[in-house]
Design goal:
The protein has 166 residues and is of the alpha/beta class. The chain is 34% helix and 28% strand. A 7-stranded mixed beta barrel has the order 1-4-3-2-6-5-7.
């Protein structure tokens, strides 16, 4: 029959083995989901836009198509300027910060035609000076595109009336 000391020692070994297994399971989950940025320093930036267009927290940030960071918050700014209604706070990897010129332009883009997955796209400028941490990136002016879409709606309405008459 096993002594009380041997049973306690066996329980301790099983407990330690369980904790080690749990640690490796958690590590595996972080590696598979891609959320393992513990050792990577990030720089905070923000941009003001007129419309969030479905962009949400956790959305990717890309510089000319290359993954560079993620969106932290999308919120109303409280600014009366119609081009600065929404403030998007995001972070990029510190190494990528050196790749963003001061004349870069940010816009909200979509991965597919349905627009279900949005991301923040930064198009690199050409100036030699790079942006500093905490700076505001200029947003693309979407007023012309919005006006074009509105004209498209007017054309569709006219076509609908014509088809109704035919």
């Amino acid at each position: 029959m096993a002594t009380k000391e041997k049973v306690s020692w066996s329980q301790l070994k099983v407990g330690i083995l369980g904790l080690v297994a749990l640690f490796f399971i958690v590590l595996l989950i972080f590696l598979l989901t891609g959320n393992l940025n513990w050792f990577q320093k990030e720089a905070a930036l923000h941009v003001y836009v007129s419309d969030a267009a479905g962009l949400g927290s956790g959305a990717p940030v890309r510089i000319n198509g290359i993954q560079a960071g993620k969106v932290n918050t999308v919120a109303l700014s409280g600014d009366r300027n119609p081009q600065k209604v929404i403030k998007v706070d995001f972070e990029v990897d510190q190494d990528m910060l050196k790749q963003i010129p001061v004349d870069s332009i940010a816009s909200i883009s979509s991965d597919n035609l349905l627009g279900s997955s949005k991301f923040l796209e930064i198009n690199k400028g050409i100036k030699p000076d790079t942006i500093e941490e905490g700076a505001t990136i200029k947003a693309a002016d979407t007023r012309q595109f919005d006006a074009l879409v509105q004209q498209g709606y007017n054309v569709l309405d006219s076509m609908q009336v014509l088809l109704g008459k035919v």
